[in-house]
Amino acid sequence: MLYTDKVMDHFNNPRNVGVLDDADGVGEVGNPVCGDMMKISIKVAEDRIADIRFQTLGCGAAIATSSIVTEMAREMTLEEAVAITKKQVADELGGLPPAKMHCSVLATDGLKAAVDDYLVKNGREPISGGLEHDDPNFDPHAVPHEEACETEG
Amino acid sequence: MEQERDTYLDYAATTPVDPRVIDAMLPSLRDVWGNPNSLYRRGREAYTALEEARERFARVIGAEHPGEIIFTAGGTEADNLALLGIPLRSRPDGGHVIVSAFEHHAVLEPAHELEKRGFDVTYLKPRPEGYIDPEDVRAALRDDTVLVSVMHGNNEIGTVQPIAEIAAAAHERGAYMHTDAAQTLGKIPFDVTALGVDAATFSGHKIYAPKGIGALYLKRRTPLAPLIRGGGQESKRRSGTQDVAGAIAFATAAELVTADLDTEAPRLAALRDRLIDGITSALENTEVSATHHERLPNIAHLIIKGVEGEAMLLQLDAKGIAISTGSACSSGSLEPSHVLLSIGCPPELAHGSIRVSVGRYTTEDDIEYFLEVFPPIVKRLRDMSPVYEKMFGSHAG
Ligand code: FES
To answer: Across the strands, what pairs with B70?
Structure first.
């Protein structure tokens, strides 16, 4: 199992680590089985992500995907942000080992939860359509076959 | 830029080949290349070299007879040979086998295979302190128990099992006793006769010999069905033309690790203890995983709470340090280490486990370097964690 240089770069020098004290929305997600946790906080201006920070407890891939998702989401509209898929995250990093694909779910779910949190706090409807982790059938450690083949890198 | 340090602290995974071992094996690679099973001069030379290596190895481990040594292609093959070969020959129609739950996969997988072939297998849980209690073995033994297999030194948590007592218990009930001693030879005094086992596994690359050579000690008159069939080499117990150079390397390595045991074991234990003290005093919420006092001198296994193992491993790697972890995230199966789970370690804590293992070329300087580099890594990762503060109090590193 090898990580790409880009994964290692984001793991060793994670961008946007921390918590925004005056956050407009906060998303906390985790997988209690393996103990991986992620928290994203966002500042929103004109329905765009103006600022973003993350905290992650997890493996190299979990930290790298969290880091890159904060870079991808910055300046995006809320719709665009919740539409980021785990595959886009993995592609942005030059691929993830198949067994590590699920780690990027932590990042996309964290972002969705933060956006929904902002919307609900402001009396609006959530738009993410639910988190992958909330699906009772979601197994964070299962590797869907197509993904395993596509993204091995 | 990354540091150019090369601090190898994973000797329990594998060891570099000792230059003296290379010197000992080179002549046989170059000159003694005959087939030890051929009758002409070249064959006889190879045969003599092989049998000499067998005698030397037998002497090192305290075997009564060189014929009790079966050379294999490594520890995994030796484990498979014992686990399948002994029950299948002595009770072809099935029976009962006991293995400990924290065995290496090289024992557990053949045990699963035995179940498929109609055997009943008991996976004996270790005590929470991290060892197998002979009383528990005694309680699990049945009249139809054919084999008990309990590892000598655990490869992850480093605890040493009371094999002599377990073997005595097995023999009382007429069962054979196998032990995987891959981690113990050269780390603690070792003698198959004193332990009273019928079979024992050894691995070359754990003791500064090359990969690809191992051995099964099989006490005379212990029944064994071969796994690898062919030309009937190794007294029909393991076919295939023998690796003469490997056997010489293995015997030489075994002599070297036992020759300096009296000075090397305390040296390693001191390095291990310095490491444990250094980590636990520099970092809160860290502890040794298994408290059983009988332990290998070269393995330190710790739980670093609130941090994930693979992240620690990769950060240490960036500083030129090699260690291993029992974290779910770093295992191919994404399951936490079965060894840690078996001693009752909750998955969240197994998540932050690290194994640091020292060896012949580890210096005090290596340990000091580790202790300098490691605490800031843990603090950084804990700072990055969304839950550390919440879970472990106000002063998060
Ligand atoms: S976070 Fe557990 S494997 Fe990536």
So the answer is: B216
Q: Which of A45, A33, A40 is nearest to A16 (CA)?
A: A40
Output the 3-class SS for B110-164. Answer: HHHHHHHCCCEEEEECCCCCCCCCHHHHHHHCCCCEEEEECCCECCCCCEECCHH
Q: Indicate which atom in ligand 1 lies nearest the CA of residue A34.
A: 2
Which residue, among A34, A67, A101, would best test binding to B if mutated, counting the most B CBs under 10 Å from its CB? A34
Q: Is B388 on the interface with A (CB under 8 A)?
A: yes
Q: Where are the domains of chain B?
A: 7-15+262-392, 19-259
Distance CA B285, CA A110 (A): 27
Q: What 3-state DSSP class applies to A95?
A: coil
Whole-angstrom distance, CA of residue B28 vs CA of residue B246 = 9
| pLDDT above 90: residue A141 | no
* ipTM (interface predicted TM): 0.86
CATH 3.40.640.10 fits B19-259, yes or no: yes
> Would the CB of A117 count as within 6 Å of ligand 1?
no
Q: Are B247 and B53 in contact (CB under 8 A)?
A: yes
- Say how far apart CA B263 and CA B384 lie, in whole Å: 43
The stretch B207-212 carries a mean pLDDT of: 98
Four-residue CA torsion sign, A144, A35, A26, A53: negative
Closest chain B residue to A110 measured between Cα atoms? B386
From CA A7, how far away is CA A10, in angstroms rounded?
5
Tell me the catalytic residues of A: 34, 103
| pTM, to two decimals | 0.92
pLDDT score, position A144: 41
Note the pLDDT tens digit of each residue in B276-329.
999 999 999 999 999 999 999 999 999 999 999 999 999 999 999 999 998 877
Q: What is B7-15+262-392's CATH number, 3.40.640.10, 3.40.50.300, 3.90.1150.10, 1.10.10.60? A: 3.90.1150.10
pLDDT per position as a tens digit, B52-62 = 999 999 999 99
Structure confidence by residue, pLDDT tens digits, A23-33: 999 999 987 55
Mean pLDDT of A106-129: 95
Could you tell me the distance, in angstroms and rounded to a whole number, from the CA of residue A60 to the centre of ligand 1?
8
Q: How far apart are CA B390 and CA A98, in angstroms?
A: 32
Q: Report the DSSP beta bridge partners of residue B357.
A: B10, B299
